[in-house]
């Protein structure tokens, strides 16, 4: 199958690790490989910690809000909730970045990736036609998020 060295340039997904074994070349570990577990969960294990026990509650609540918004206000309102949620999560992740030790590059990389993902989700929802939520709704969401993050920090 791999009779000779892989041609260059070689994409890591195609050549790694087979090319490394056959040719003795050292390819960087492909960043594009899908992790088998969420990196944040792995990092928590490395730090002898765990996700919040209330995660199922948060997921169920988020699903219920999204479902209700879709039923009551349609897709554009539902997308508006997505945009606001992602914006608030992005701000929350910024606060984590400020508190993380500068030397904890592993955690910082995960949070930075999460932040990039959330920004992309928000932009996608905007492009899909999200409506801006009224300020009182945004304020309620911030209040709910504060309760969630405070509780999740302890439970
Ligand atoms: Fe997201």
Feature tags:
6 helices; globular; disordered N terminus; binds fe (ii) ion
Helix fraction by DSSP (H/I, runs of at least 4): 55-70%
Question: How many strands, which pairing sense, and closed or not: the largest β-sheet?
Answer: none
Mean pLDDT: 79
Shape: globular
Structural overview:
The protein has 155 residues and is mostly helical. The chain has a domain at 48-154. The chain is built from six helices and no strands. The protein has helices spanning 12-15, 18-23, 39-46, 55-99, 105-127, 135-154. It is globular and about 45 Å long. The model is unreliable at 1-28 (pLDDT under 50). It binds fe (ii) ion (FE2). Fe (ii) ion is lined by residues 86, 117-118, 121.
List the helices and strands and how they pair.
Layout: H1 12-15, H2 18-23, H3 39-46, H4 55-99, H5 105-127, H6 135-154
Helix pairs in contact: 4-5, 4-6
Bound molecules: fe (ii) ion (FE2).
Fe (ii) ion (FE2) binds at residues 86, 117-118, 121.
Summed up, what is this model?
The chain has 155 residues and is mainly alpha-helical. 68% of the residues lie in helices and 0% in strands. Helix 4 packs across helix 5 and helix 4 (55-99) crosses helix 6.
């Amino acid at each position: 199958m791999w009779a000779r060295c892989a041609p260059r340039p070689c994409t890591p997904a195609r050549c790694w690790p087979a090319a490394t074994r056959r040719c003795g070349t050292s390819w960087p570990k492909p960043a594009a490989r899908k992790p088998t577990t969420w990196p944040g969960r792995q990092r928590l294990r490395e730090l002898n910690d765990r996700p919040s026990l209330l995660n199922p509650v948060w997921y169920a609540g988020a699903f219920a809000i999204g479902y209700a918004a879709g039923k009551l206000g349609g897709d554009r309102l539902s997308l508006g909730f997505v945009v606001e949620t992602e914006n608030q999560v992005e701000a929350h992740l910024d606060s984590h970045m400020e508190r993380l030790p500068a030397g904890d590059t592993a955690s910082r990389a995960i949070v930075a990736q999460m932040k990039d993902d959330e920004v992309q989700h928000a932009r996608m929802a905007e492009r899909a036609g999200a409506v801006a939520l009224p300020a009182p709704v945004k304020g309620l969401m911030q209040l709910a998020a504060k309760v969630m993050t405070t509780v999740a920090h302890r439970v």
